[in-house]
Amino acid sequence: MTDAARDPARLEKGRVFFAQQWSFWLSVADMNGLPDFAGVEVAFAGRSNVGKSSLINALTGTKALARTSNTPGRTQQLNYFVPGEEASREAPLAIVDMPGYGYAKAPLPIVEEWNELIVAYLRGRVNLRRVYVLIDSRHGLKANDEDVLELLDKAAVSYQAVLTKADKIKPPALATAISNVEAALKRHPAAFPEVLATSSEKGTGLAELRAAIAELA
Question: Is residue 15 left, alpha or beta, with left meaning phi > 0 and alpha meaning psi from -120 to 50?
Fold first, then answer.
């Protein structure tokens, strides 16, 4: 991790931004339901059960803001979360929890609907400033992750890889996982070169991720 990512002033801005109360705003089932929102949107994408909702809860310090489940495919819509005591379209930033991709055990028509929504949103949302692509540190990049990275490259959407569940593997294995993903990202022009490693349970990497998101707001 770079010295800039650990800059105390930067980390403090991220802490203050996420110390606000966060609220669920709305769920969107199709592109026609996207809100009229002037603020910045950052999206969390990843394979089913990679830990998107858990990471959002950890970042915001709220146990049940985003619905978590051990059942893959529970998030079926775009779920918007914004800072403030009352959810409002006037918020400076929204975190968008996307449906997990790559879950083949759900009924095929549902999987197709989710994937169509993911693709349409990533391609067509003007105020989408950055996508955080979550990757399970135990498994690394999979074929469907690569598909999403290529889509983001073509759409010229800035994105950064975030390893989840970093506490589930030993430090040498985590270092190897980070190195492997960083090497893969060199082939992707829209990707940030630096990979963040996080743990929702232990708090690893949360300060750095908060700071990165706060800068966008």
Answer: alpha
What is the pTM (predicted TM-score) of this model?
0.90
* pLDDT tens digit sequence for 23-60: 999 999 888 899 999 899 999 999 988 999 899 999 99
SS3 for the chain, per residue? CCCHHHCHHHHHHHHHHHCCCEEEEEEECCHHHCCCCCCEEEEEEEECCCCHHHHHHHHHCCCCCCCCCCCCCCCCCEEEEEECCCCCCCCCEEEEECCCECCCCCCHHHHHHHHHHHHHHHHHCCCEEEEEEEEECCCCCCHHHHHHHHHHHHHCCCEEEEEECHHHCCHHHHHHHHHHHHHHHCCCCCECCCCEECCCCCCCCHHHHHHHHHHHC
At 51-63, the pLDDT tens digits run: 998 999 999 998 8
